[in-house]
Design brief:
two-stranded antiparallel sheet, binds magnesium ion, binds adenosine-5'-diphosphate, alpha/beta, 49% helix
């Protein structure tokens, strides 16, 4: 198929729990010509950062030059740090997966994240921090958001292929209004 023979570097980013790895695995199952570059794995294996209490804190400055070398002409680069270690010249398209922050909280609880880590990541989703930073790093034309909340992995991959093909698509996401209506800012932010 035409869309699948295009060489390209595709970023899959978004907050923890939005479905990056599930989506990436299915995408590559359908088109195994892509090399997967997992930013967190790359950081841990390369020692770009430090072990901390609840995981690994990546030093994005240290790994920037190294990950650029690894990106080939057909890669799917997955990780929430993508906007901080790559830029416009490295990639063709960035997909920011989004998920309703209330659903994210449930996923974080299942992952046994601490309360502070839950608020930090769900709050980041509310504000669209990674989406904004992806636009800042990769530009508006290359950055597309997909709301994964009620979509199957198959549907999400289909939408990504549509965006690759047509350079258009994606969703407009606004969680702030929902939280404002419910008057539940306290669930996401300390103040
Ligand atoms: P990430 O890599 O962004 O942290 P994961 O792919 O690990 O996210 O998915 C987080 C959780 O959500 C997992 O339990 C996964 O099984 C589930 N999940 C992922 N994608 C979907 C989807 N499209 N629909 C329903 N559940 C999903
Ligand atoms: Mg993951």
């Amino acid at each position: 198929m035409d869309t699948k023979s295009n060489c390209m570097n595709l970023v899959i980013t978004g907050n923890p729990g939005v479905g990056k790895h599930t989506t990436t695995d299915l995408f590559v199952k359908q088109d195994s010509s892509y090399q997967i570059i997992d930013i967190n794995k790359f950081a841990i294996e390369g020692g770009f950062g430090n072990k901390v209490e609840d995981g690994f804190e990546v030093n994005t400055i240290e790994m920037k030059d190294e990950i650029k070398k690894k990106v080939s002409d057909k890669s799917i680069i997955v990780g929430h740090l993508a906007p901080y270690v790559l830029d416009d010249s490295d990639i063709d398209l960035a997909i920011v997966l989004r998920k309703n922050p209330y659903d994210l909280i449930d996923i974080y609880k299942k992952r046994d994240y601490q309360e502070s880590k839950i608020k930090q990541n769900a709050g980041s989703e509310v504000l669209g921090v990674i989406a904004n930073d992806a636009i800042a790093s990769f530009g508006k034309e290359k950055t597309f958001e997909i709301d994964t909340t009620t979509k199957t992995p198959e549907r999400i991959v289909e939408e990504i292929n549509g965006i690759i093909k047509n350079k258009e698509g994606g969703d407009i996401i606004d969680w702030l209004t929902i939280i404002e209506e419910r008057n539940e800012f306290g669930r996401f932010f300390d103040y």
